[in-house]
Amino acid sequence: MDLTAQLKKYFGFNTFKGNQETIIKNILADKDTFVLMPTGGGKSLCYQLPALIKEGTAIIISPLIALMKNQVDAMRSFSNDDSVAHFLNSSLTRGEIHKVKEDVIAGKTKLLYVAPESLTKEENISFLQQIKISFYAVDEAHCISEWGHDFRPEYRRIRPIVEEIGKAPIIGLTATATPKVQHDIMKNLGMSEGDVFKDSFFRPNLYYEVRPKVNETKQIIQFIKNNSGKSGIVYCLSRKKVEELAETLQVNGINALAYHAGMDSATRSKHQDMFLMEQVDVIVATIAFGMGIDKPDVRFVIHYDIPKSLEGYYQETGRAGRDGGEGQCIVFYTYKDIQKLEKFMQGKPVAEQEIGKHLLLETVSYAESAVCRPKMLLSYFGEDMTEPCNNCDNCNNPKEQFEGKKYVTTLIKVILAVTENYKADYIANLISGHADYSIKSFKHHKIPEFGIGKENDAKFWHGVIRQSLVAKLIKKDIENYGLLKITEKGHEYLKSPESIMLVKDHDYEKAEQEEQGAQSGTASADPTLFKMLKDLRKKIATELNVPPFVIFQDPSLNDMSTHYPITLEELQNMSGVGAGKAQRYGADFIKLIKNYVDENEIDRPVDMVVKSVVNKSGLKVYIIQSIDRKMPLDAIAEAKGLEMNDLLKEIEAIVYSGTKINIDYYIDEVVDEERQEDIYEYFMEEAETESIEAALAELGEDEYPEEDIRLVRIKFLCNEGN
What we know:
The chain folds into 5 domains: 3-198, P-loop containing nucleotide triphosphate hydrolases (Rossmann fold, 3-Layer(aba) Sandwich); 206-383, 3-Layer(aba) Sandwich (Rossmann fold), CATH 3.40.50; 400-504, Arc Repressor Mutant, subunit A, CATH 1.10.10; 522-608, Orthogonal Bundle (DNA polymerase, domain 1); 618-721, ATP-dependent DNA helicase RecQ (Arc Repressor Mutant, subunit A). The protein is built from 35 helices and 17 strands. A 7-stranded parallel beta sheet has the order 3-4-2-5-6-1-7, with helices on both faces. It has a 6-stranded parallel beta sheet with strand order 8-13-12-9-11-10, with helices on both faces. Strands 14-17 form a two-stranded antiparallel ribbon. A hairpin with a 7-residue loop joins strand 15 and strand 16 (484-486). The radius of gyration is 32 Å and the shape is globular.
């Protein structure tokens, strides 16, 4: 049979991609087939074409209802008969189910898409027993394995159901599977003798980068604005963060929408369609978005949070650059996110926690590694990449290298000394001399190898383990996943060790601290402008006969001299400047800044001025309304479950942003008149800053309690500044 002619007849293509033709021939020969093909490799065609050619109906088992609908619509677009493809799932009415079954019995339907849950229904089993089945295709087959990134228990029941319905060849297809997951899939589907077809996981057009998670929202806005008009996806782990970030992008002039499983299906579908139809540039989503999204020109995929597994990460980044064009894949990393994910696992079954922790460890390994990123990813999926990609952050900014022969030989010897029976964490602790509970329980703190490399910490030895895995000197056992074993190449290396250059890993905690330190420093970006703003503040304060700090505090001026705001809207994005303050005092400040920018031809970093979304929490509104009703402050605090100190912080924030409130009714109750006058006079006449510490030092904390000073300061700022 001329398969190319069939391809042209049904799909209009002249040539096959990669392994497609060989796979299709294998399926047509009624052989069990396992297909491992990265996103965008043309996986669906591997079962669609043989289904059209073979006698009978192919049963396609797929996990997502939305995905089924897309696939069926796509198949119908290639045919002049809508009966060629149907789906059978819970979204259909009784009448629609009857029509599907009629078409299948009549032999008109070549592909029937079924959810695993529908497959197990007694009525569907009875129905499928009546028809000629050409083969079963299990799409997204990684869902079978607990080690896969999207485990679904119902996928485990596919093989017994197939036995009950009637045997036919089985095709397993997935875009991501480590050797362990592949092993699980084939074993569970009873196709261990099946033929395996693997395409390379290397996508040379994708650029991979890991960034420290510092000011990540600002970085994302800047990146998207620098890639204006391009399609992109930003993944977050929580629905709440998806909504917050989508809103922040919108108020910063980015055409973005949210997508997560908590939205109603009509809104989800609408947002997805708007993205596909290019009515929106950016989708901010949980991982619920993207399976089966066939948009070829996604130019960037950003992970706001580190993903739970490398498999999930690879699949999500695989949605970028499917047309072979540019695709930038950026992930923000902080170890704090890993600790958060570990906390979420608590309370789950122990076996599930073990797997989850192991998958997280792989993600940490990837993030902190200084090795070529694709090389690291491909090694994880069991593929060897000899040359570096020269298109990732690690290749573009090579880290310091050091001679690793001594460390690699030590590692191999220690793994052998404990009979290749332990995981990476255990080995790293053993070599570095960290006697945790498990090492003591196995009495390994008493063997000569304990602490043999204690001049370096466990983190360093994790780096040696990672790079030895990439170099194929050691491997992870598949049956007892994670146990480190020495490969044949590793045994050879031990007999005759040779020079091996290792790379120093990233220290992201240190990078975070350095970056945060740099950003929290008080030095302004432009000292000349900062001085001019201080002079202006003093001039206005003198005219109004109030202390300068009442107008704007130093952090606000520092922000202005860093970001050069030239409109009232931009001014409100500066620290401690609310709408009230901007309206009351802002005009003179933005006029001065604009003149300064024009005269000095300054290129303003406007993309760095991130507008924040108005705090929608009802707390501030509740406080203001309660004060308007003259409700005692201690009663407000009690009603909201706050300490008095926290309530005062909230009120101070309201006042600093420029909102005027009147708490005289409460102050008159709790602070005697004479004391009020003393504190008020101090802030009016003597205070150089609004500091409570300075006020306590001047007034005497024995006589004037801190709470009284704070209450009167609120009154003072409202009267004189707002």
